Amino acid sequence: MAEKGAIHGLAIGVPSAVLAGAVALSLLGYGAANAIETRFGIPAELTYGSPLDLLHLSRHALTSWMEMADKLHETENFRWLVYAMAGVGLALTLIAIAARTPKVRHQAVKAGGRAWRALSNLPGAGALRWLRRQALSFTPLAIGAAVPWLLIILMKMAITVFVILPYAGYKGALLHFDTWVVSAEFCSPIRGRNERLNPFNLNASPSRQEYKTKITPCLSLWQDGALVAEGRHVASTDSTVILFDPVSGNVVIEPTEGRSMRLSGPSAAVLNDQLQAPLTDD
To answer: The organism sits in which domain of life (predicted)?
Structure first.
């Protein structure tokens, strides 16, 4: 029976978990589609055509949130949170030690007894005791009065569940696009065999020690030997690709069917020479 129960639980739990994960990623992808509309002007409805496309778009949000999670421990707020939680833990530890000390516990019980007697002598204490004895009798009144408010709270919770994931996808993808597409200085280099086996450090030169260089993939679309479009890769699905030209500001969404796609960018040697040049204000 136990084995049948476990098998039954797996048969229901695994598909349910997969479905919940797919829905969550699709909502993140919907938020990313809206981020593309905000930053690049492409209507969100044109960036996806199926739930699978939303899954593709969700990676922009996930990448950004993972990057923030990796750097969370370096922030000042995180350090203050660590100090605060350590202080709370220390206070609770001291309270627990004091509670296990007979002398301190006895004094605390005596102080609590005196406080209770003082409260019992306050005006209205008799009415409070009567209400405490009749608490169960007021249960129908409390339930009847609370039901309308509970319905409102449940409706808001349901709306929040469907809003928070797209919002998280929107904010994460927007930060990703600003950081790694718009703000990038160079296209990713086209690396030959030697460069792929021995990749160079983008920030190894002395002039780049205090300024992190950002590169982003650039693509070009070709059809019948003619260049159709070229730019920084923003996002893509199984049928379209969105490219951004940082010089002109032009953003295009192009179908990929019947076209070849190539990496576009400087060679690794040229990029390395550019990185070795000292930084100027120009």
So the answer is: Bacteria
Q: Domain range holding 149?
A: 1-108+137-181
The answer to whether residue 125 is domain-embedded is no
Residues 95 and 142 in one domain: yes
pLDDT at 265 over 90: no
* Distance spanning both ends of the chain, measured CA to CA: 75
Under a CB-based contact definition with an 8 Å cutoff, are residues 30 and 54 in contact? yes
This prediction has a pTM of: 0.71
How many structural domains is the chain composed of? Answer: 2
User: Each residue of 130-179: pLDDT tens digit?
Assistant: 666 766 776 777 788 888 888 888 888 888 877 899 999 999 999 999 99
DSSP string, 103-167: HHHHHHHHHHHHHHHHHHTSTTHHHHHHHHHTGGGGHHHHHHHHHHHHHHHHHHHHHHHHHHHHH
